[in-house]
Amino acid sequence: MKLILTHYIDIEPATVTSRLDAAVAAGLDAAADRSAAARGATITSTLDHGIHIDSGLDALAGTECTFNGSDQLTEIRVEVPWSPTDSGTVKLWAANRFAGVLAEQLAGA
Question: Which CATH number does the domain housing residue 76 bear?
């Protein structure tokens, strides 16, 4: 089961590619602050059109961030490993904060 968070940004996918690593790190930092969790080193794997988070914040390990779009609009999709017991926990806060900051950083805000 996965929690899926989607954002749309008015930027082309090529720009997302160039900003993705830094945006993931900033998102993990914000999620760690929001959930008051320990932040480790960011370790990721490259996916076609995205990135897989191997470690950096325990609550978000295994998360996949993918994107696709056109010249003017890109869809950012964040898929967090999820179980029914995760609802209402700090994992939800971390996931939501991560996805929001990721989108902001990718859009250049």
Answer: 3.30.530
pLDDT digits (tens, 9 = 90+) for 12-28: 898 998 999 999 999 99
- Which pTM value belongs to this model? 0.93
Given a contact cutoff of 8 angstroms between Cβ atoms, the answer to whether 8 and 74 are in contact is: yes
What domain range is 65 assigned to? 2-107
How many structural domains is the chain composed of?
Answer: 1
Q: How far apart are CA 6 and CA 93, in angstroms?
A: 15
Count of CB atoms situated within 10 Å of the CB of 101:
21
CA distance 59 to 67: 21
Assess contact for 39 and 28: CB atoms under 8 A. yes
Task: Name the residue type at position 59.
Answer: A
Q: Report helix, strand or coil for 44.
A: strand
